[in-house]
Design brief:
Two copies of one chain form a homodimer.
Chain A: H1 2-14, E1 23-28, E2 33-34, E3 39-43, H2 48-59, E4 63-68, E5 80-83, H3 87-98, E6 103-106, E7 113-115, E8 129-136, H4 140-147, E9 153-160, H5 166-174, E10 179-184, E11 196-203, E12 208-215, H6 216-234
Helix pairs in contact in A: 2-6
Pathway (chains A, B): Cofactor biosynthesis; coenzyme A biosynthesis; CoA from (R)-pantothenate: step 3/5; Cofactor biosynthesis; coenzyme A biosynthesis; CoA from (R)-pantothenate: step 2/5
Cofactor (chains A, B): FMN; Mg(2+)
Catalytic activity (chains A, B): (R)-4'-phosphopantothenate + L-cysteine + CTP = N-[(R)-4-phosphopantothenoyl]-L-cysteine + CMP + diphosphate + H(+); N-[(R)-4-phosphopantothenoyl]-L-cysteine + H(+) = (R)-4'-phosphopantetheine + CO2
């Protein structure tokens, strides 16, 4: 769009971002896992953080593909949006971009589990108690990260209910991420359905940056600054390697 | 509000509705049933039908209380809105209005079941397969209908995947409703997440009115016309009984 081109032009007069012209995939929002034709399992993710990241990356001149679950948000200018519903749909959409993207940012709250045998129509149920069997969904971010080349970055989020940061560090290790944003879950200031977040950015090197309570927009900017440094140092010849 | 008073005044110059000054409770939207601190079970209800009914009733001068699950909709002018999340919360809110309302319209897609033991925090799960036990939620509409006085009306919806209307008739009987709107579920033209509905209105007397595909707004108007007739004939002295 003209708007994006103007923003890109404006940005490039200020400074060239190492993300300029790079392909970035961002996942966002919740997924919905069908129980039957009318019922589903989901989570409280609003998609705001992922959309803010996608917008901030596009402003830096990156070619952003935003794969999102069902949310009520406007697509940021210059971002290519792909709407999906379930974790399996998000997985399929993400896989088509794994090879060709430079940076993969998993900000979606992908459902860990889905009903094992979803029913096409509406279930008729009379029993006082019923059981639903859930099976594990693929870990989209880990799958990308564990197969990524040395030129690709994988960035993830860890939403934790405890202030215990070790769980986030474990995820960074086990998924071999380049950076994990530890997201302390607090109903009022950070996490789902609020406009602010309190993130701690943990890099592969161990470097840890504690951000204060910021709007998700500002938190996205700070995250992108760290990613720019990481990507810039990883591929110092990025201007020539296009 | 001034707006409501103006609308009421305007309406009353046209014709006095038997719903004028009557207390109507409308339930709308889905409910969300917590699995844990971040996950829930819900359904695809958008709340549009219930909101349209609430708006149409308020235009007729009724005193409308709209009890709604989580939706992304504007409150219709002159309607008192109460936001709830779970079926149990909707049940509690509805019960406070049972005694004093003249007409109860259950348009919400209340979850039939909720997780038996929701977990406060975020579950840590590693297993390939897990089981969730669900227990039955109260049937809010049936509870009101079965205890209503002869001066009160209970109106319900039956969302059915088959064109088999008998199920709706059975619900009308078993819940002793005054009217049930049989709502054929079709992803494109009728039911959840679309702007139109194909309703068949079945009254206690057996009288059946098949409506064509209408906007939910127009369907609400037609439903209210039938309710007006039912309520008017039930309480012919309504003007004096205030």
């Amino acid at each position: 769009t003209i708007h994006t081109h103007l923003e890109e032009a404006l940005h490039s007069t200020q400074q060239e971002s190492p993300l300029q012209g790079r392909s970035i995939v961002v996942t966002a929002g919740p997924t919905r896992e069908k129980i039957d034709g009318v019922r589903y399992i989901s989570n409280y993710s609003s998609g705001k953080m992922g959309f803010a990241i996608a917008g901030a990356a596009a402003k830096r001149g990156a070619l952003v593909t935003l794969i999102t679950g069902p949310v009520h948000l406007e697509t940021p200018p210059g971002v290519k949006r792909i709407d999906v519903e379930s974790a399996l749909e998000m997985h399929a959409a993400a896989r088509t971009f794994f090879q060709s993207c430079h940076i993969f940012i998993g900000a979606a709250a992908v459902a860990d589990y889905r009903p094992a045998a979803p029913y096409e129509r509406k279930m008729k149920k009379e029993a006082e108690e019923i059981e639903i069997t859930l099976v594990k969904n693929p870990d989209i971010l880990a799958e990308f990260s564990l197969q990524k080349s040395t030129k690709q970055l994988a960035i993830g989020f860890a939403l934790e209910m405890q202030s215990d940061i070790d769980n986030a560090r474990k995820k960074l290790e086990s998924k071999q991420l380049d950076l994990i944003a530890f997201n302390f879950f607090d109903r009022k200031t950070s996490g789902f359905e609020v406009d602010t977040n309190i993130l701690t950015l943990i890099e592969r090197s161990g470097k840890t940056t504690e951000l204060p309570q910021l709007t998700k927009h500002d938190a996205a900017e700070r995250l992108l600054e760290v990613i720019e440094k990481q990507y810039g140092s990883k591929s110092p010849l990025h201007k020539n390697s296009r």
